Amino acid sequence: MTDHKSSYRQILKTTSLFGGVQFLTIIISIVRTKLIAVFIGPAGMGIIALLNSAMNTISGLSSLGIETSGVKHVSAKYKEGELQSVSRIISIIKKLVLLTGIIGTLFTIMFASWLSTITFGSGKFSSAFVLIAVTVLFKQVTAGQLVILQGLRRMRLLAKANFYGNLLGLLVSVPLYYYYGIDAIVPTIIVISLSALLFSFYYSNQVGIQNENIAGRQLLNEGKSVIKLGILLTISGLLTLLTTYLIQIYIGSSGGLEQVGFYNAGFTLLNSYVGIIFTVMSTDYFPKLSAISEDNGKVRESVKQQSFISVLIITPIIILFLSFIPLIIKLIYTPQFNVIIPMVCFGILGMLFRAVSWSMGFVIIAKGDSKIFLRTAIGFNIISLVLNFLGYYYYGLQGLGLSFLVYYVIHFLGLKLITQKRYGLYFEKEFYFTYLVCIALCGITFLLRYIPNPFLKYTLMALMSVVSITFVLYQLNKKIELKSVFNALINKKND
Questions:
Q1: Is 54 helix (H, G, I), strand (E, B) or coil?
Q2: What are the tens digits of pLDDT across the range 378-419?
Q3: DSSP characters for 399-424?
Q4: Spans of all domains in the chain
Q5: Do residues 248 and 388 touch, judged by C-beta distance below 8 A?
Q6: Are 51 and 266 in contact (CB under 8 A)?
């Protein structure tokens, strides 16, 4: 087997391994979202969205980006099979996330009244912010534990930690919403973050890393490199969270809490359910990229392979989503949420451009290129904010989906120019051919939605689904020889 085929197979193997467990996690999330929509309605979902957005912003600010910076440093220092090589950096990361988590929690408690006024326009949610302040600590300590698993590329343990944490959160939160309705929002947020914490500890402890004693001065001296990159990541993450936060506040002030609930429901579909494929692939992609970041040739090859697989995987998902979006909305939410269908249909086309820009964007982080990273973070978030404001102002919820699509086209073109000029990254003609075919397939399916005859519309959409899956399998077969993969799986089961 050539190195190229081996690399493509490894990407697909890791994606299927982690993706299988993540699929179950998505099912859990869908069940929880469906029940929440039934028990508390769009207004209740709007409250959850605003509370989570505020807490994510605080957590993003106080965490100093250590959860991502930590993965890079653990991956770079780890020598295969030698856990001792990373014991010290992991001990530093654990202490840093504990410290930043405490700071974030205290900040939330101190400014609870101000947060309530900014978020909801009054101080009536001050006590809610005080109570959920502890989730900042829980989230950051959880992230510190998961850094160990991701940095060491222990994908099975990482997937299990995420899955069981979500499962416990579902089992506890659903009865709370059933019996207490909107009053269960605060305790449910706490329970979900606590369950994630418990399982992250359980699975990270299975790795067997020995803790090292590190004094305060040593912690600051040796943690400088982690914090330096982390601060840049914090700025970027904070800008993204702040952008989302401001958009939700704008929608809430213009259209009310129900509109915020619809906005959050639509982008939950895009980012949490469709976008989960990027989370799955980045789990292994980022550590691998960090380990080879000094070699532009290897980085270019890795980006090309990851982009190719990402585009092929996301294309049939987009087409199936466009074909069955009314049914998906009905299953996940309630008929009240049908208003988000146009927004989701425009937005999901943006995922095809996001698939490639996402692959390129990780290069900047892996290389620790602070100057260009900061500039792109500021520039792209300003563009996102402006596009979303304009989109909602002129076209309402549908405009938000359209702005999402336009943003990711700009994001793709911008990162392509930056990475080509700065790191010599480029794609070959073969990739562009595949990419353009995938764009055409998704675009045609999108236009089929406007056919008035339901029978003709869904027949043609079904045909497009078959064509897309056939095309994807054909392209994958050229890279990894699917027949030999299936034979290997069959032989493994028979052994």
A1: helix
A2: 899 999 999 999 999 999 899 999 999 999 999 999 999 999
A3: HHHHHHHHHHHHHHHHHHHHHHHHH-
A4: 25-255, 292-495
A5: no
A6: no
How far apart are the C-alpha atoms of 174 and 196, rounded to whole Å?
16
Distance from C-alpha of 102 to C-alpha of 80, rounded to nearest angstrom: 33
Specify whether the CB–CB gap between 135 and 190 falls below 8 A: yes
Query: 241-286 pLDDT, tens per residue?
Result: 788 888 888 888 888 878 888 888 888 778 766 666 676 666 667 7
Contact present, 22 and 281 (Cβ < 8 Å)? no
Q: What is the pTM of this model?
A: 0.72
CA 313 to chain centre: 16
Model pLDDT for residues 81-140, shown as the tens digit of each residue: 566 666 777 778 888 888 888 998 999 899 888 888 888 877 888 888 888 888 889 888
Q: Between vectors from CA 328 to CA 183 and to CA 27, what angle results, nearest 5°?
A: 65
- Nearest Cα neighbor of 275 from 287, 288, 286, 266 is 266
**What DSSP designation does 79 have?**
B
What distance in Å separates the CA atoms of residue 380 and residue 404, rounded to the nearest whole number? 12
Distance CA(115)–CA(123), nearest Å, equals 8
Contact 283, 146 (CB under 8 A): no
CB neighbours of 109 closer than 8 A, spacing ≥ 6? 129, 130, 133
8 Å CB contact between 359 and 367: no
Q: Which of 343, 373, 370 is nearest to 240 (CA)?
A: 373
First-to-final CA distance of the chain: 22
